[in-house]
Amino acid sequence: MPERMSPSTIMTILLVLLTCLWSLIFASSKSKHRKLPPGPRSLPITGNLHMLVNLPHRSLQQLAKKYGHIMSIRLGNVSTIVVSSPQAAELFLKTHDTNFANRPKIQASEYLAYGTKGMALSTGHDYQQ
């Protein structure tokens, strides 16, 4: 009859496996990120959502005082760039205007907005001169 493992051995093996899994997840998430602006460290699943309390705009203002007018935060698993001054927003939008001008084509917009000709679901190419 096989010998049973002690509970401490099982816990040790489980702890080693969880540490390896966490390391793999952390390493793969780091490799996906490009060079981002400075920002607060985030939690693994919720990101920085715990920092946005009752008044999120005030929380972002406090974070901007610490990390600058252009900072990165994670909302869940989504990396987000926060721009908190008009000058920085103007600079950012002028530099990356083509990234914000285009929207992906959605099949539903073909039927709802007359072939993406409506204002809300247009792709951005429809209004460029």
TrEMBL record:
Q: Does the keyword Lyase apply?
A: no
Q: Which keywords accompany this UniProt record?
A: Heme, Iron, Membrane, Metal-binding, Monooxygenase, Oxidoreductase, Signal
Q: What InterPro entries does its record include?
A: Cyt_P450, Cyt_P450_E_grp-I, Cyt_P450_sf
Task: Offer an example of a GO molecular function term for this protein.
Answer: monooxygenase activity
The record's GO CC annotations read: membrane
The region annotated as signal peptide is 1-27
Tell me the domain of life. Answer: Eukaryota
Q: Which metal ions or organic cofactors does this protein require, according to UniProt?
A: heme
Q: Where in the cell is it found?
A: Membrane
The record's family statement is: Belongs to the cytochrome P450 family.
- What is the designated name of this protein? Putative cytochrome P450
Lineage of the species this protein comes from: Eukaryota, Viridiplantae, Streptophyta, Embryophyta, Tracheophyta
